[in-house]
Amino acid sequence: MIKNIFLALFAFSLVLAEPSFSLIKKGEENKEAVLVIGGIQGDEPGGFFSANLLATEYNITKGALWVVPNLNFPSIVKNNRGAAGDMNRKFAKISPEDPDYKAVNFIKDIITHKEVAFVVHLHDGSGFYRPEFIDAKHSPARWGNCAIIDQSELKGVKYGELEINANRIVKTINEKIKDKEHIYHLKNTHTAQKGSKDAEQLNSLTYFAITKNKPAYANEASKELDVYTRIYYHLIALEEYMRIAGLEFERSFELTPKGIKEVMKKEIRLSLFDDRFLLALKDPRASINYIPTPINQQFSSNYQSQNPLVAIVDETRKGKKGKETNIYYGNRLLTSIRPQYFEFGHSLPAASVKVDGRDEIVTFGSKIHVDDNIIINSQKNVRVNVIGYENPSKKETDVKITKKDIQRNYSIDKAGKIFRVEFYEQESGKKDKFLGMFLVEFARLEALSIKQG
Ligand SMILES: [Zn+2]
Prior knowledge:
Layout: E1 2-9, E2 22-28, E3 33-37, H1 45-57, E4 58-62, E5 64-68, H2 73-77, H3 101-111, E6 116-125, E7 128-129, E8 138-139, E9 146-149, H4 162-174, E10 185-188, H5 205-211, E11 216-222, H6 227-244, E12 248-251, H7 257-263, E13 268-272, E14 277-281, E15 287-294, E16 303-304, E17 310-315, E18 324-329, E19 332-344, E20 350-355, E21 358-363, E22 367-370, E23 373-376, E24 382-386, E25 400-402, E26 418-425, E27 433-442, H8 445-452
Parallel strand pairs: 3-5, 3-6, 6-11, 7-8, 9-10, 15-19, 19-27, 22-27
Antiparallel strand pairs: 1-2, 2-5, 4-12, 9-11, 13-14, 13-16, 17-18, 18-19, 20-21, 20-23, 23-25, 24-26, 26-27
Helix pairs in contact: 1-6, 4-6, 6-7
The structure holds zinc ion.
């Protein structure tokens, strides 16, 4: 049986509002799986965005793929190497007091799981690795653009021909490089060998895997490259690793730096408060305000997204005054959100509307496309607020509303197309209770499908 996507969230953090990593299992169940890990260091976006694209934009049609795209999620949103130091030096030993303790132990359990066939660990490294010294940027001391193994083989273990397999990756990438400088090489760190220059790799994730008889490979893209070119090389490597394990797959975009850039602009959805409020983020405005929020609740403790690299973070940013609540896609700040507190009511699960003349029931927490106009049918004791809509009669129900009737700067997107329609329960003598909302995107469907197809 083919599973599409299975999201297991490991709530390992006791600190509220600290995002934790996800394990996404794709493809067939109970099959040996390739495990791909990204985001151990938060300043290596080529690695974590590549793993995330595998998780969200690939369909595994044969075999099994497990992906952890955001191992060190707190450091990803902060765009630093490690919020609590370098996590990739904590696999030989770690103190229970270390903030990374639970994450490291969880990922060790996943790596050593009996279904994991081998591990591919993604990094962005400095400069360009060369076996011989050429100059400071191209030398044996650099880590960019190479396939790394800790030793040449893991004897008697399936997929343990580390050098043979990593060389196959190097060859595959080099057939597709965009520039001679980008040429890939094999780097064998001989981690366990006496006098190894890279003895600190004894503390790394891949070497931990090796000691547990799990073949492990690292792929590095250079920090000299723009992020889309890094992802391009990582994905070429990952697709070849999947082929080595006999996986078959489909992807939703063209494997070029340009195709990657396009697919990463796709709308990102995030729902708040058990699907009562939806944010559909496609080039959103810098801030989205007056979001109905239950009294005594925080955004960061009650949200969901199908995209594992999306997080809501409460923080005080450098050079900014006061606390902010920010939505991140990896290390990219998408928007800031601000609450308006309400009691939540439960008397209505959906809204009755007419979209371009058709009767429809719209579930709260969804988005609909409107070609020209929408009419929201009135209901007893329900107040409707189309955010940004004003009309002299103060009526927002049973009237035809088109895009030009709504003030453009109230949209949640910069393009001025996506607007909020909110519903409140009214009872005389009491404060309004928030019931739910949906989003309206004014766009012709034909035009949309051409753009996205
Ligand atoms: Zn790294």
